[in-house]
């Protein structure tokens, strides 16, 4: 199911994203947030998979046209990300979906992100607490992004890897504990003996098919519960 690139308003500027609508023509909205590579085919494919599940999916291009296949370059792009601009792009993407004729649930969208996008998913939920109804994190990390957790209203599903060389398991447990201390609804699942990027089927050295399948089931069931009712 192919989508298309669209422009949307981002605090007076414009941003782009990859939009996919389901064959039914309407559904709840989901924001799909990129890894540090950029808006690459893998992220577009995830948006298409959500559309196949009946969602209107939008993947914002947070690098504004830039992408890379080099880990070193990707790391540099992640660290150079303008967090304030990214926050505006995320807010604009959420507003775009909530105002889209094809989006049926006007009370809130879902956010889901991978690696860099994982923590941005939580950040978007914290910065837009009245507009995000469910938040999914896949092994999220970005040292410069600090979500204001006290603002969070959406339930959170965290999917992490025990042997993640980029996301220390101690930091995952610390985040879960902070959310619980704040009385936030959070369900964290840590897959044993699995490494970073286990969901990325374009990286054979990292991809773990049975774990990815289980994580997808958890994510779609979570959104089904909180976005579709």
In short:
This protein is of the alpha/beta class. It has 6 helices and 8 strands; from the N terminus they run E-E-E-H-E-H-H-E-H-E-E-H-E-H.
Write the layout of secondary structure elements.
Layout: E1 4-10, E2 13-20, E3 29-33, H1 41-52, E4 56-60, H2 71-80, H3 83-98, E5 109-114, H4 116-127, E6 132-138, E7 156-161, H5 169-181, E8 186-191, H6 209-228
Please provide a written account of the structure:
By secondary structure, the protein is of the alpha/beta class. The chain has one domain (4-228): Rossmann fold, CATH 3.40.50.1820. The protein is 36% helix and 22% strand. The model has no long low-confidence stretch (mean pLDDT 96).
Mean pLDDT over the full residue set: 96
Order of helices and strands: EEEHEHHEHEEHEH
Radius of gyration (Å): 16 Å
Highest CATH level, the class: Alpha Beta
Detail the poorly predicted runs.
none
How does CATH name the architecture?
3-Layer(aba) Sandwich
Q: What is the total domain count?
A: 1
Task: Please list the strands of the largest sheet in the order they lie side by side.
Answer: 1-2-4-3-5-6-7-8
Question: Could you name the key traits of this structure?
Answer:
single chain; 229 residues; alpha/beta; Rossmann fold; eight-stranded mixed sheet; 8 strands; 22% strand; globular
């Amino acid at each position: 199911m192919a989508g298309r690139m669209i422009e949307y308003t981002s605090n007076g500027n414009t941003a782009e994203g990859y939009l996919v609508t389901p064959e039914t023509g309407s559904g709840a909205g989901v924001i799909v947030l990129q890894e540090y590579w950029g808006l690459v085919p893998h992220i577009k494919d995830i948006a298409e998979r959500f559309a196949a599940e009946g969602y209107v999916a939008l993947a914002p291009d947070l690098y504004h046209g830039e992408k890379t296949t080099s880990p070193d370059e990707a790391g540099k792009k992640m660290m150079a990300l303008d967090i304030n601009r990214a926050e505006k792009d995320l807010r604009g993407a959420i507003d775009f979906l909530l105002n889209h004729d094809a989006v049926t649930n006007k009370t809130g969208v879902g956010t889901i992100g991978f690696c860099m996008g994982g923590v941005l998913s939580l950040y978007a939920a914290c910065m837009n607490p009245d507009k995000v109804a469910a938040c999914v994190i896949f092994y999220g990390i970005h040292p410069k992004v600090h979500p204001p957790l006290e603002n969070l209203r959406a339930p959170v599903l965290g999917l992490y890897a025990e042997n993640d060389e980029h996301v220390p398991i101690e930091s995952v447990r610390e985040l879960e504990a902070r959310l619980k201390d704040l009385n936030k609804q959070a369900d964290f699942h840590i897959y044993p003996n699995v490494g970073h990027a286990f969901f990325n089927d374009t990286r054979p050295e990292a991809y773990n098919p049975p774990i990815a399948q289980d994580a997808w089931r958890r994510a779609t069931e979570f959104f089904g519960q909180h976005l579709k009712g």
